[in-house]
Structure formats: structure tokens, C-alpha cells
Design a protein that fits this description.
By secondary structure, the protein is mainly α. It has one domain: Alpha-lytic protease prodomain-like. The protein is built from 7 helices and no strands.
Length: about 200
């Protein structure tokens, strides 16, 4: 761990706040865009991605709360809340993908959905990289972990984008729910790591 002085630490904390507020603002706007696009296209994938945005909003709120205070207890609670967000995302992806495949739901084409998910993927990966660097510099496991939530948000945006694009170009309506199962595994792995004894010891130490 790099040793930072108080002035540098405060600068890093401010950067962490800025990254989380940017994530929060983007996802709030995303809920509006995705709701309109989902209703217009009758797309389960877009509606589900809106739910993912809600989870990301919750995770960002947890980090903002954690950065506002100090102490290992606050970090431990923050990590557990992030873990719960991962678990909720995994359950949502599993249920959504299974239902869509089972009922054979065929959404309409959505140009606005394709544009939004493409831009969102780029934005989320950039924010995740910033959170990772800042969290490691602060030795803050909550910020680092929430950065991984943002990575999943970016990967999910790419999966939804791929599904929407394949549906529009080739009529492959099943591509998006199939990709969702890969993300279920990734999110479940993060939950296991967060709640493992080793991770808890790291947060406490």
C-alpha cells in the first residue's frame, strides 16, 4: 500500500466522491431513458437494465455514505451492502434471462436503447477504472469493490447492446438472455469473495 499524506488523502477522497456522484447522476438519467425505450420497444432486456441502474444507484449511495465517515465497522458494513447489491444483480439476471428464454419474448427494435447502452458501456468502464485506482490509493476496499459493480454494469450494457443489435440485424432475440447467464456467474463470484472470511479480515485489518 502506498503511503499518502493527509492533503493527498483528502484529494483522493474528493475524487472518490466525484466518481460516485457521476455514476449516480448517469444512472438516474439512465432510468428515464431506459424506461421510455423499454416501453416503446416492449423490451424485457431494457427494462431489466433499468433495474440494474437502480442497483448501481444503491451501490454508489453506499460508497458516498462510507466515504463520509471513518472506521473499520463502517467499511465492513459498506462491503456487506455492496455484496447484497451484487447478490440482487445476480438474482435479477438469472430470473430475467430464464423467463425471457422460457416465454420466447421477441422485443421490437430500439435505436435509442442501442445508442444508450453503447455510450453507457464506455462511461461505466471509465468510471470503474477511476474508482479502482482511487480506492487502491486510499486502501479503501469499499470503493474498490463498488468499482467492480460498475464493471459489471458496463459488461451488462455490452451484453444488452449485443442482444439488441443481434435482434435488430439478425432477429436473434435469444442472444441477450443467453449472455445474462455469464454475468450471473461473475456476480455470484463477487458475492462469494465479499462475504468470504478472508475478505472480512481484510476489511477489518
Amino acid at each position: 500500500m502506498a503511503v499518502v499524506d493527509e492533503q493527498e488523502r483528502q484529494s483522493l477522497v474528493r475524487r472518490g466522491f466525484a466518481l460516485e456522484w457521476a455514476t449516480l447522476g448517469w444512472n438516474v438519467a439512465g432510468i428515464v431513458v431506459l424506461t421510455v425505450s423499454a416501453i416503446t420497444a416492449r423490451s424485457v432486456a431494457l427494462a431489466g437494465f433499468g433495474l440494474d441502474s437502480l442497483i448501481e444507484i444503491g451501490a454508489s449511495t453506499v460508497v458516498i455514505w462510507e466515504l463520509s465517515g471513518t472506521g473499520t465497522d463502517r467499511q465492513r458494513r459498506g462491503l456487506r451492502l455492496i455484496g447484497c447489491a451484487f447478490a440482487a444483480l445476480a438474482v435479477y439476471l438469472l430470473v430475467q434471462s430464464t423467463v425471457v428464454l422460457a416465454v420466447g419474448h421477441h422485443p421490437r427494435h430500439s435505436v435509442s436503447g442501442i445508442i444508450w447502452t453503447a455510450v453507457t458501456a464506455a462511461v461505466m468502464f471509465a468510471l470503474a477504472a477511476g474508482k479502482g485506482r482511487t480506492g487502491r490509493a486510499l486502501d479503501n476496499p469499499v470503493l474498490v469493490t463498488e468499482g467492480r459493480v460498475t464493471v459489471i454494469d458496463g459488461i451488462l450494457a455490452m451484453a444488452v447492446l449485443l442482444g439488441l443489435s443481434l435482434n435488430a440485424v439478425a432477429g436473434w432475440w435469444w442472444a441477450d438472455p443467453a449472455a445474462g447467464y455469464v454475468l450471473v456467474y461473475y456476480a455470484a463470484r463477487e458475492v462469494r469473495e465479499i462475504f468470504s472470511p478472508h475478505e472480512g479480515a481484510t476489511a477489518a485489518g
